[in-house]
UniProtKB/TrEMBL annotation:
It is a single-pass type II membrane protein. GO terms for cellular component: Golgi membrane. GO terms for molecular function: polygalacturonate 4-alpha-galacturonosyltransferase activity. The lineage of its organism: Eukaryota, Viridiplantae, Streptophyta, Embryophyta, Tracheophyta. Its main location: Golgi. GO terms for biological process: cell wall organization; pectin biosynthetic process. It comes from Tripterygium wilfordii. This is Hexosyltransferase. It is found in: Golgi apparatus membrane. Its EC number is 2.4.1.-. Keywords: Cell wall biogenesis/degradation, Glycoprotein, Glycosyltransferase, Golgi apparatus, Membrane, Signal-anchor, Transferase, Transmembrane, Transmembrane helix.
Length: 494
């Protein structure tokens, strides 16, 4: 808008100097049809400014005349674009003449320039405020949409939960598998997924086993909440995943994970924190992406307690529930971690993924201990050496930083910032092809990069199970859904 105002005022001065030329425009001197389009566009810009000025001075008839000619001009330019032919002299002449005449009429009104400038500035400010409000609203709507579970998936969860409750044999089978020696066998390959989304977790498991060289050697440890526990059990007990072992745990049975042990549990129960994330009136200025209930979900934070949940395991690959696995992941378990705890793909190929973008370096607690230019990395596909984790006592480091951030002064968003702090100096960079991110917000990821990726990650609001998912990526996720399952077929068709 500011550039538009400057252009308008410059054009106004040009028109003042060339009034006789405009009044007696000789169209035979115009050298090409593109000049007609350019003249029309320039006159429209100036005319729009005079529409605003005329309305401010209550000259509504002139404002209406200008608006009418602007519409005629827009229509002519649109028609020319659609037919892919240049504007002819016969089409351009009457509009350029009449619009020139109206612009001169507006100038002859001798509007006070100082008043006009103040008026235009107020309009610019109002437009900027409206644009900012629209951006915030759009972000908020996008956030709300990404949080909502589609009706079909909600239906599936209800149907599966009913199956679980009504089927004692399923419950007995789950009890039998709970004590399987495979769950603690470190000669096998262990993966953990923390989710309340049945289909998303199923896609992760199915894509991992489908692309594994030896799927029967894979063990999946799924943790969910009490609401989704029955549905998860019913789904994974009634589907075959190429002979892999699957365990489902209920986070509500982790009695040790309580407010006296875990600072995050204490903070998540705090009314002020809940108001901050869920949107109390006193926090109307909070950035929309922060006002997300997922930050109040303990499932989002238990990645920092993997050694406590699985005390007998030595290595585990952590997978987010919005990833798709495309290649065999078992070579991760034989990578040399050089004594580090966390193997992750770094994300600082772009400058905004360095530590200073996630953490408050104006606080001496942060600036005295961390390098602001240190490279960030991604959660979503991580190999964790749990022996090294226990030796370095990473969970205690995580607790320390959560306690320091009780007032949200060190960081404000999610689990990555405390992860960057807890695993600082303990992270082994992985080849970028292990984990390609951005499928939940970036529509222009290179096909070759995606094809070479071991794991593709739909991080962002455009999750593959939502209607707002990016179309070209959605089939990569959908092909790993068991669409023949009767409950799934019922919920999708109904």
């Amino acid at each position: 808008m500011k550039a538009y105002l400057a252009t308008s005022l410059c054009q106004e001065r040009d028109v003042n100097r060339a009034q006789p030329v405009l009044q007696h425009l000789n169209f035979t001197e115009v050298s090409s049809a593109t000049s007609f389009s350019r003249q029309l566009a320039e006159q429209m810009t100036l005319a729009k400014a005079y529409v605003i000025i005329s309305k401010e001075h209550n000259n509504l008839h002139l404002a209406w005349q200008l608006s009418s000619k602007i519409r005629s001009c827009q229509l002519l330019l649109s028609k020319a674009a659609m037919r892919k032919e240049p504007i002819s002299l016969e089409e351009a002449e009457p509009i350029i003449r009449s619009l020139s005449s109206l612009i001169l009429k507006a100038q002859e009104a001798h509007y006070d320039i100082a008043t006009t400038m103040m008026t235009m500035k107020s309009h610019i400010q109002a437009l900027e405020e409206r644009a900012n409000a629209a951006t915030v609203q759009s972000t908020l709507f996008g956030q709300l949409t990404s949080e909502a579970l589609p009706k079909s998936l909600h239906c599936l969860k209800v149907k599966l939960t009913t199956d679980w409750i009504r089927s004692p044999p399923l419950q007995e089978l789950a009890d039998e598998k709970r004590n399987s020696p495979r769950l603690v066998d470190n000669n096998l390959y262990h993966f953990c997924i923390f989710s309340d989304n049945v289909v998303a977790a199923s896609v992760v498991v199915n894509s991992t086993t489908s692309n594994a060289d030896h799927p029967k050697q894979l063990v999946f440890h799924i943790v969910t909440n009490g609401i989704s526990y029955g549905a998860m059990q019913a789904w994974f007990l009634s589907n075959d995943f190429k002979g892999s072992t699957i365990e489902v745990k209920n986070i509500e049975e982790f009695t040790w994970l309580n407010a006296s042990y875990s600072p995050i549990v204490k903070q998540l129960r705090d009314p002020d924190s809940r108001a901050y994330y869920l949107g109390g009136n006193e926090y109307l200025g909070v950035e929309p992406k922060l006002r997300n209930p997922k930050y109040l979900s303990l499932l989002n934070h238990i990645r920092f307690y993997i050694p406590e949940i699985y005390p007998q395991l030595e290595k585990v690959v952590f997978l987010d529930d919005d990833v798709v696995v495309q290649k065999d992941l078992t070579p991760l378990f034989s990578l040399d971690m050089h004594g580090n705890v966390n193997g992750a793909v770094e994300t600082c190929l772009e400058a905004f993924h360095r530590y200073y973008k996630y953490l408050n370096f104006s606080n001496p607690i942060i600036s005295s201990k961390f390098d602001p230019q240190a490279c960030g990395w991604a959660f979503g596909m991580n190999i964790f050496d749990l022996i090294a984790w226990r030796t370095a006592n990473v969970t205690a480091r995580y607790h320390h930083w959560q306690e320091q951030n009780a007032d949200r002064s060190l960081w404000k968003l999610g689990t990555l910032p405390p992860g960057l702090l807890a695993f600082y100096g303990l992270t082994e960079p992985l080849d970028r092809r292990w984990h390609v991110l951005g499928l939940g917000y970036d529509a222009n990821i290179d096909n070759r990069l995606m094809e070479s990726a071991a794991v593709i990650h739909f991080n962002g609001n455009m999750k593959p199970w939502l209607k707002l998912a990016i179309g070209r990526y959605k089939p990569l996720w959908e092909r790993y859904i068991n669409q023949s399952h009767p409950d799934y077929k019922y919920c999708i068709t109904s």
